[in-house]
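Re: the 477-residue chain
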Amino acid sequence: MVQFDPKRGGLPENGRPLFFIFAGVALLVTAAFFGPFLGNFFAFDDFAILEHINQGPMAVLLGYNYILRFVANAAAWPLYAVSGYDPFGYNLFGAFLWCLNAVLFYRFLNRLLADRWYAFVAATIFVASAVGIDAALWKAANSTLLNLAFYLLALHAYVVFRQTGNRRQWWLSLCWFALAVFSKEEAASLPFVVLLLELFWFDGLREKKAVVLRLAAYCAVVVFYVLLNYVVTYQIFGAQAEVARYSSFRPLRSLFTGFTAFSLTPDSRWGANDPRLYLTCLLVPLSFLLVKDRRLLILGYAWVFFTFLPQSLSTLTQLEPRYICNSLSRHLYLPSAGAAIVFATLLMRLRDRVQPRLAVGIIGVCLAGFVGFNLWQAQVRGRAWQQEGEGMERFLVALMKEVPQFPPNTFLYVNNAPAGRAFVQQALRAFYRNPSITWINDPNSYRRKPGETALLIDTLWQEDSSVRFAFYRFGSP
């Protein structure tokens, strides 16, 4: 019989490797979270990605609104090649990355700490945390998932390098980091995490010059990314990137909001003055009284702060969001890994406080309760995204049955549209494969020009869930 040894950090040699047990747990949790929602239709910026695929490679790489996340943007090609306009493949990809990142998180912690049971508990909390679930439920947000995958690979390679001295692992870490940065900007937080690893695990103070040079190499990748964005967006295309247009420095948001990863629900329904927000932050110093080795607590809290810091500049997400796509959820996916480190550190303190069997029982009950609560949160959030896509799906299916194709230079206005005008235009361009379809901003002042087809479409939503349309042509110029 395999016995749990809380000090050993693993199973006996004749036991089943804990890594594979965790991989099974991660797969089961992921299936429970996302299985019911693999058919969720596209929503919001998903349509911009589909539209760009029809426009060609350059449009895909540049991303919508000039967000030069080349690696994440390029992932749209194989997804489209496999799944086309079927959302199943895109949803499955997000679920796969969710599970993969949990396995990579386990691998990183186990390598750093040589404590498989700690890695098991922390990674289980991470994979079962629903606070950042929008990163997987919203197909346009898969850049966050890809970013963390490369982020964890970079950290793992760096830890191997520092433990073994294998310089190929250092260069591999730098390559993984470059892929993370070109997936999403929040990867810029990694040098801060590396610095903490040096200070608390690798005695980096004795090798100050070498550590500084390695950190400088990471920072050089970030600087190169920023300069490339500036040259391509501003100098070549004369445009303004969405990241710059919707950014603002708000110190209190940067300082406190990331810590809602410990307790915020995916819908972000807390006011900026909600006492729970600040109570969470006040509990942080109290947690240091509960553990002896505080390095992991410092790592966890610093992880939360630094991974949220680049995202805190965005004005596209808020507490108490008006629309589902403005929730903080996707920005709390990376910080939730830091929260998992903190939770696991506090739970595993039981190994030193109570009998081993009792510790196992308490930890098991806590994990089961955590998984159960977050499974409920995931189901609620998944249904919310499902409802967001249902209207557009019904609209497109009915319209394409009624009008198999629009002629070139079609201008239209839709009454009772299922989404905002930009999203409807992107959806029509993508699904009709017609880049000339254009939304009429003001039908009262619009005047049709020669060669244009102009339509007013009145959408009639029926009680039996069917959709009907009334079409009106604009007059001659």
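Residues 1-15 have pLDDT under 50 and may be disordered.
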